[in-house]
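Final report, closing paragraph on structural work. Over the funding period we assembled a curated collection of sequence-structure pairs, and we close with a single example.
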Amino acid sequence: MPKDAHESREGAARSGKRPGPLAGLRVLDIATMIAAPLTASILGDYGADIVKIEMPGAGDTVRKLGAQRDGVGLYWKTLSRNKRSVAMDLRHPEAQRLFLRWLPQFDVLIENFRPGTLERWNLAPERLREIHPPLIILRMTGFGQDGPYRTRQGFGTLAEAMSGVASVMVRDMPGFPRDRPALTSFPLGDVTAGMMGVNGVLAALWNRERRGAGEIVDLAIYEALLKFMELEVLRYEGESEAETEAPRIPDSAPRGLYRCGDGHWMALSGSAQPVAERILRLIGGEALAADPRFRTNALRVAHVEELDAIISGWCAGRSREECIAKMSAAGCAAGPLESVGTLVANPQVLARRAFVEVEDPELGPLRMTNVLPQFAGHARAEPRPGPGEVGADTLTVLAEDLGLGTDEIAHLQREGALGGPQAADAPERAHGHQAAEG
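Its predicted structure, as stored:
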C-alpha cells in the first residue's frame, strides 16, 4: 500500500469514518489521453490504488496538453490524480514478461489502444484472462471493438460529431445561427465516456462478486454520448440542416469541423502529436510536416488560421467520404459530422466543496474538482495531484509489488523495457522498500 494512502486511511480511522468505498481495489491504467485515464482517476477518488504505466521518456500526451504553468500541464495534474507512474515500454519483450508476472496483483486493467494493438504486443485480453481469470478489463476506444470503424483513430472530438451532439449543441442559443454545428470548448465526449467507464467497471465488479468471473467491458466513446441524443432521435422528422463553418477549439490544433467538397462536414482531431504529424504529412507531404509553423501543438495553435486554411483547401477538393477514407488509412483521427434532425464562486459550489485546493510539489496550490459524489460515512480523502516525472514511482512500485532489486531494475532500464529514475542512482531507496515489504 502506498505511504500516502496508508496515512489517509489512518486519518479516516481517527475521524471515525471509513476510507473510500473502493479501498483495497487495485487498478492498472495503461491508457493515454483523457477518457479511459479519467475512469481510473475517478476509481482512485473512491479509494482504489491506481498505478499508471507510461511510455519511458515522453509519457502521456496529456502532460503537455492545454494550459501550462512553468512548463507543467495543469490538466495532467488533475486528470492523473491519485496515480503512481511507472515507466514501461509494453512493446518490449522483457516488459511484456514483467507485465504478465505483475498483472495478477490487480483487479482492473484499463486500456484504450486501437483493436489489435494488445494482440501485437502478445498481451491479448484472452491471454491476460487466462493468466488472471478474475481480471476485469475496460477497453475504451473511439468506435468500439467491432464494426467497420473499429480500427480508425478515435477521439472525443469525433464522438461529439458522429453522435450528432455537435449538430444540435448551440441550436437554441440566442444570437447564434441555428444552422451552425459546433464542437464544445471542453472535452464533453471524453469526460462522458470516462464516467460511463466507471459504471461499466463497477457493474463488472458486482458480477465478479456474485459469480467469481472477470469481465471484458467494451465501450465506444461516441456511444457514451448517445443518451444525450435520445430526445432528438425521437422527434427527428427528417429535416435537413444547413451547414456553415463551426468554431475552433483553442487548446489544440488541428481540431475542428471542416467542410468537404460535397458540402458535408468532417471532424478532425490532431490533439496527439503523432496524429497531427500524420495529418500534415497526408495533406502536404514531408514539406508540410517539417514546416516550422506547425512542428508543435503550441506552434500550430499560434498559426491556426494558416493551418485551417491548408486543411480546408485539401478538404474542398474531395468528398467527405474520400477525406475520411484517406485520413483513416493514414492513421489520422477523422470522422463524419452526423445530425438527427463565476462557477467556482457559486455559494452552493462553495458550500459543498465541489472544488478543492491541493498542494502540488511542483506547482504549489492547485485547484481541482473534489471527490464526487460524496459517500455517507466515508472519509473524503483529498485528491493527490498527478505524478511529476514520467515513471516517478517505477522503483518504489516494482520493489513493493514484485520485490525487484536495483540490479534487475537497472538491467531492464538499460534494455529499454523500463524508464523512470535510474535504479543505479538510488540503491538505498529500492532496497529500503524491499526490506519494508519483507
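The chain is about 40% helix and 15% strand. The domain at 3-177+187-224+344-392 is CATH 3.40.50.10540 (Rossmann fold). We thank the funder for supporting this effort.
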